[in-house]
Amino acid sequence: MKYIDEYRDPQSTRKYAEAIAQLVTRPWTIMEVCGGQTHSIVRFGIQDLLPDEIELVHGPGCPVCVTPVDMVDKAIEIASYSDVIFCSFGDMMRVPGSKSDLTRVRARGGDLRAVYTPLDAVKIAAANPQKQVVFFAVGFETTAPANAMAVYLAKKQGLKNFSVLVSHVLVPPAMKAILSSPDNTVQGFLAAGHVCTVMGTHAYTSLADTYHVPIVVTGFEPLDILQGIYMCVRQLEDGSATVENQYERAVQDDGNTQAQDLIEKVFRVIPRKWRGIGTIPESGWALSDEYSSFDAQQRFKLAEAATEEHTECLSGKVLQGLKKPADCPAFGVTCTPENPLGATMVSGEGACAAYYRYRKERVV
Prior knowledge:
Elements: H1 10-23, E1 28-32, H2 35-43, H3 46-49, E2 54-58, H4 63-66, H5 69-79, E3 84-88, H6 102-107, E4 111-114, H7 118-127, E5 132-139, H8 144-156, E6 162-169, H9 171-180, E7 188-192, H10 193-199, H11 205-211, E8 215-218, H12 222-238, E9 243-245, H13 257-266, E10 267-274, E11 278-287, H14 296-299, H15 315-319, H16 351-363
Parallel strand pairs: 1-2, 1-7, 3-4, 3-5, 5-6, 7-8, 8-9
Antiparallel strand pairs: 6-11, 10-11
Helix pairs in contact: 1-12, 2-16, 7-8, 8-13
């Protein structure tokens, strides 16, 4: 397929793998911060193409995986109300809360609808004025423009029965938290290309400067990732630490300024709790004062409740690059896609799901 096959070309892929092997002189640890990149790395065996000196670790690049348990519990509570139509992306349906998940709510008669875009939820609200329609707005900066547009349009249309349960998270603060940790081993980053398509590259410059770490904005196909690794290793080997853009066919330094303006209008920056990691300052978005009437937490007067992570699950350490999925004793044993202990085994972008699907026979 044009524009995909050329980035999966075996000959070009091998050339980049060989170039990396010729370039590297010492061990380096590089983290990709995107679940899509994680799945490509595992699916196409990219780690196996690299010299032993290069270790790839997987970061908190799956927004479904980092949505905290208490937020999932709130979604379950709202979805259980008889007068609610609860809308969500499909990959949130099976993410476990503290006691249940959204799929079980639907099995008990709840009106849950998987949608492809939050704008579908706005249409559902307009067509069902007798019902409260709630959209579960999760994701990184990538999904924020569409979620912001849904709220913007709902206000413009005067919809009183539409609200959003917001659990947006931001990538640069998470990278900062990883770099600030005393346990950090990451020496270079592959930044998420789709996030930077929206937000641009400028937010990463201060991280590269402050922590003296190379950051390469990277695409999602095998050749993209190997090019990104090559660029990152080249910087590591020569002692430089700048932001480079491998994904130039999609990413501009300024990003999508119209999308950024809409995000700034609808959302405000807040501290955000990350599943398995904890609260990271200035790492999330909530609705701005102008759009606060569309906040589902306020509309349904949801109480805050302390929730505990599953003690067997090591997904928090996987999300911080401190463990690989196979390091978890539960992986493939008591934790499977059919019976997940954590979100990293459920999501289509989760590292545990990737290992289970593509490498299970090699790691269990």
